[in-house]
Amino acid sequence: MASTVDASSRQGFKLSQLIYDTRYRSLTIQAIAMALLVLFLSWLVSNTVQNLSDLGKDFDFGFLGQRAGYDINQTLIPYTSGSSHARAAIVGILNTLLVAFLGCILATIVGVIAGVLRLSKNWLVARLMTVYVEGFRNVPLLLWIIAIFAMMTEATPQPRDFREGGTASMWLWDSVAVSNRGVYIPAPVWGPGSTALIIVFVLSIAAIIGFRRYAFRRQEATGVLLPILPVSLALFFLPSILAYFVLGGPVSLAYPELGGFNFQGGLHMRNSLIALWLALSLYTGAFIAEIVRGGILSVAKGQSEAAFALGLRPSRTMNLVILPQAMRVIIPPLISQYLNLTKNSSLAIAVGYMDARSTLGGITINQTGRELEGMLLLGLFYLVLSLIISGAMNVFNARMKLKER
Amino acid sequence: MSDTHAQTARFVRESMLPEREPPLAEVGAVKWVRENLFSGWLNILLTVVSAVVIGWILLHIVPWFWNSVWKAGSLSQCREIRDEAFGPGASSACFAVITDRWHQLVFGFYPQTLYWRPVTALIVFLIAASPVLFPRLPRQALWFSAISPFIMFWLLWGGSVWAPLSVLLGIVLAYVAFRIASRFVSPVLAMLAGVAVAVLCWGLLAGPLTTDMSRILPIRLRAVGSDDFGGFMLSFIIGVSAIILSLPLGILLALGRQSDLFFINKVSVAFIELIRGVPLIVWLFTASLLLNYFLPPGTNFDLMLRVIIMVTLFSAAYIAEVVRGGLAALPKGQYEGADSLGLDYWQSMRLIILPQALKISIPGIVNTFIGLFKDTTLVVFIGLLDPIGLSNAIRASTDWNGVYFELFVFIGLMFFICCFSMSRYSIALEKKLQREHR
Fold first, then answer.
1. Among A202, B74, B324, B398, which residue has the least CB neighbours within 10 Å?
2. Domain segments of chain A: what residues?
3. Cα distance from B36 to chain A (closest Cα, Å)?
4. Interface ipTM above 0.90
5. Fold entry, domain A59-164+271-363
6. Alpha helices, DSSP H, located in A187-226
7. Do B404 and A150 touch (CB under 8 A)?
8. Which residue of B has its CA nearest to A23?
9. 3-state DSSP call for residue B221?
10. CB distance A139–B419 less than 8 Å?
């Protein structure tokens, strides 16, 4: 029986079945698509090979080991113009990560505050925040970056105005100077014994986490609430402050001072960094504000009413009922905003901030003539970064997903 | 009842009191202010802080606007006029730069005598867009929308009228071939036939047709090269073409990503993730630096066209993700219902799934469009003269060296108007299409 069916179906197979029979059609379509794609890719590759040989170039990453020969004005790791192109690329990548990290923190703070205030019953504040959100969301980021950069360089005083009898003065008890050459802030000086202080600080953080876990377990088991906040605050401040005095003040601050024509000492944050950081944070903050607002609004009103009916205080209602549900809505788009911020940091080119695109994808390419390799590495860097972040997001989503059925 | 009370209660009111005015604090503006601005200590604090912020901002901006100078030939002239009128050092905007150079900011280096052409193209665009945006207008107007891209192309770039017409002819022939073929063979094959006819028409017929017809009936406008395009015109052209092209491509990619066909699915995922993982700037640099490597030796095509292609691919990947969200949000019953009606894949997508999925994704799609339109400013980095590039060029001239914020305000305002109206339209559309939870 089975053999006859097989035989008849084998006999009955016609070429037209490849198009009309749904069992085979999907295979046909895929085979055609694959053939077309392979043809297209091989066409691209053969063109590239042809073009490279016409130009007398080869495909080689050896240039990464060569001497870079250019200076970078902001380096987080030791770098001189004698270092290699690879090191220049790493300096750029670190600069990208620095501005992205700072931007994510500030954008979150700004966004959460603006999002919550936009829901406020206070008419004035809600309107102000609406203006902020709409203003930043509907104007190109590039314009904000160069506008803030222009503000930093054109509308701030020159260092010489800070002299005695000058028009400008430093902020926060003579510790922060905002000048047209950048912002100068006090820099920490790590004296002997500062390692011990850092160890104490890390230990106290670990103790806080441990205590919170213990308190949570205890509450789950017995229902007894421990005073988490005061104990955490005490653990945070007391050991470190004690250790600071016991060790004899190992860490001090070096204040910026006006010397010659510019400020000396302290930490110099360039205008390019500040402008990029502020613009990225304010721009992304506007988007985060909308996400936060949407997340809070997405929690049904009955939830908070039910919490009040149970007799929970407003703060507990927020912490235990509203926020956990809102977070589920907020976090995924929030992380994709972080991703956008990181990618948008490539707009650093507008203000001359030396990020990965300016070093690896800019000066290095111009000096070595290796467009193909340089752009490939640059693209790879951004791709890996965003795949890591979106991978983390997927893990988080899987953990936070409502466990249904 | 009242009798019993008269015995037990010590006092009973015998007459009604006349209605009295509510307390002053409970009516009108006073009540509103009390409730909305000063209802508690936190509220009072917020009000005071925001009033201070608003006051501080207004204090800096209002005099700047109020004292603005609108008629001058250069920044130094501006300063002279200001010194005369308001005293030296007064805060004063010099909007004369806008009145002096607005044609550059809007049209770039498009020939001055031909400004009527982009303006007409804009009018054509608005007329063509209105039946798409507002379904109340007669449906026949959509035919005009369909041919309007060719009219706009001809108006903007000029040249012989027969070049865009022969492209249009190819599309019309392809459609005719598709209709004829679909009577005899399956729709997939008919589509292939249509594509083949179009390619044949463009490859063999278009060139000779254009040259011959131009000789017989020379209707032509003065040709203007893409190099002369700039300003808001450039942003608008790139933005609008990319928006129109990326929507269908994005929908196809989303369908590919949801597809059961293994190969198509994986290719779509790879394409979307690759495009989304890398910033637009890097793609634009790829378009300007590397595209020549990938194309046959000797080809060199218009930078603006390359940018439009890149921006289209870029936003298509984002739209694909938005539409995928919409497809995933549909209940499974909709897919099963379409299958049980006996519709094939394309019919079920076209008639059942996509109308609902696209409705859900409208806000996301419009947000992508807004982002795309804002991102057109990035073309400044590869040497195209968008408004920001022109503002740099204007500042580089000796007349206007040192003008910053006046230009930024103008450019920002233009972008704000476009993007804000797009988002308002999407909100209105969303409300109109909402069927449930009325």
1. B398
2. 59-164+271-363
3. 5
4. no
5. MetI-like fold (1.10.3720)
6. 194-222
7. yes
8. B261
9. strand
10. yes
